[in-house]
Write a structure and sequence with these properties.
Layout: H1 5-9, E1 15-18, H2 20-35, E2 40-44, H3 51-59, E3 63-66, H4 69-78, E4 85-87, H5 94-102, E5 107-110, H6 113-125, E6 130-137, E7 159-160, H7 164-170, E8 177-183, H8 194-212, E9 219-221, H9 241-251, E10 259-264, H10 266-269, E11 273-284, E12 289-293, H11 302-306, E13 312-314, E14 323-328, E15 337-344, E16 352-355, E17 376-379
Helix pairs in contact: 2-9, 4-5, 5-6, 8-9
The structure holds ligand LLP.
């Protein structure tokens, strides 16, 4: 990316810089490829709930995938159609269920029988029928970081198939629920796309089970998880939507009139964002040099939480990167480190540094720890 130094130098750091052209191009690529098969894509708000970004995604016609009552409210305030809003989450509170019922959303993606019982009870009290989908734990390995793997039996998410017989016996008694489909989400930052083929095969088996039980399902929601290239943000700025959707087209067996839904977050927004920070001090250690920057884990927690890699570059000095620095923040935690032995040119106080691919799970996971100011955003 060509960083607009004039804008950067006139903006107090740290801040998120969003490249809206890349955002538009990414969303358009996703739409083109998913439209080939008539698939519905819901944007997973959890990746980034910045108003400007949401507005653009809404205008392109995406649905919304929410995981809290406040995300449901936010999606509808921004203008997403309630009929395209799904509400997932393993621990929906009564207040959140009520919010979603207020808006008559598309679907509650339900994760347990106790949750179905509660939604039924609340809906009954309001004289409503809630549309629900069952989130099923398919026991498929997403081959990603274990903190963002969700589709294994050891994970808290979803209903296991061995619970399904009992659940389907109980369901007809829950008269204020209307079962509209099944839902899966096996994990995030999935780069081995053969994993999705495995998911399709498992979904087909699960569909056979429901057919045998004479349960009709109109909607199949296969979740999100398509990864992005953190190593090469410039040469591989847009994820391979064509291959991704084609895998589902080729391997997912659908019954007549079934509709397929996706909940994509990261791959729609990650590459459009960079965290821009300024070098405060350079400290020469015994074994390593530290570039101490003014952003910390409060602005971007991914490296501290998942040991995740982000490409880091000195955008003030573009000469050859022939020195190594540990790029660290000012927070009183040793894990407040964005990258170790990062290759950069000679770096000095006042240089601007870009931490790339931070448009997803960056700003939205920021905190006020150490009473830090809320991080700002700038759009180009
Ligand atoms: N649907 C459900 C039910 C989910 O739990 C998630 C993400 C998504 C969709 C969207 O997944 P995506 O397309 O973005 O991979 N904070 C972590 C990622 C957590 C993902 C949680 N669930 C990170 O920074 O890597």
């Amino acid at each position: 990316m060509n960083f607009p130094l004039d804008i950067i130098q006139n903006t107090p750091t740290p801040f998120y810089l969003y490249d809206l052209k890349l955002l538009h191009n990414t969303l358009d690529a996703c739409i083109t490829e998913s439209n080939k098969y008539g698939y519905h894509v819901h944007y997973a708000l959890k990746a980034n709930t910045n108003n400007e970004i949401l507005q653009i995604i809404k205008e392109k016609g995406f649905g919304a995938d929410c995981v809290s009552g406040n995300e449901v409210k936010k999606a509808i305030e921004i203008g997403f159609n309630p009929e395209d809003v799904a509400f997932a989450g393993v621990g929906k509170s009564d207040a959140e269920i009520n919010i979603a019922l207020d808006y008559n959303i598309f679907s509650f993606n339900c994760e347990s029988l106790p949750e179905l019982e509660v939604i039924n009870e609340i809906a009954k009290g309001r004289g409503q029928v809630a549309d629900v989908a069952l989130r099923i734990n398919p026991n498929v390995n997403a081959k990603t970081h274990h903190y963002i793997t969700t589709g294994l039996e050891e994970n808290k998410f979803g209903i296991n198939m061995w619970e399904m017989d009992d659940l389907l016996e109980r369901l007809p008694h829950l008269t204020n629920l209307n079962l509209i489909g099944i839902h899966f989400h096996i994990g995030s930052q999935i780069t081995d796309l053969s994993v999705f083929r495995g998911l399709c095969i498992r979904v087909n088996e699960i569909q056979d089970y429901f057919v045998k039980k004479h349960v009709q399902l109109k909607h199949i929601n296969v979740g999100g998880g398509l990864g992005v290239d953190y190593e090469n943000p410039d040469t591989n700025a847009i994820s391979d939507f064509a291959t991704f959707f084609k895998i589902f087209h080729d391997h997912l067996k659908l019954l007549p009139n079934q509709q397929v839904h996706f909940e994509l977050g990261r791959c729609l927004v990650a590459q459009s964002g960079s965290l821009i920070t300024k070098v405060l001090y350079v400290k020469n250690g015994v074994k390593t040099n530290f570039a101490i920057v003014d952003a910390g884990m409060t602005e971007l927690i991914r490296p501290a939480l998942y040991q995740s890699y982000h490409h880091i570059e000195n955008i003030s000095n573009t000469s050859e990167a022939n020195e190594k620095y540990d790029v660290v923040g000012p927070i009183c935690e040793s894990s407040d480190c964005f990258g170790k032995a990062v290759k950069m040119p000679h770096t000095k106080r006042g240089d601007y540094v870009a931490i790339r691919t931070t448009g997803a799970y960056g700003e939205v996971m920021s905190s006020a720890y150490n009473l830090r100011d809320r991080v700002k955003a700038v759009y180009v």
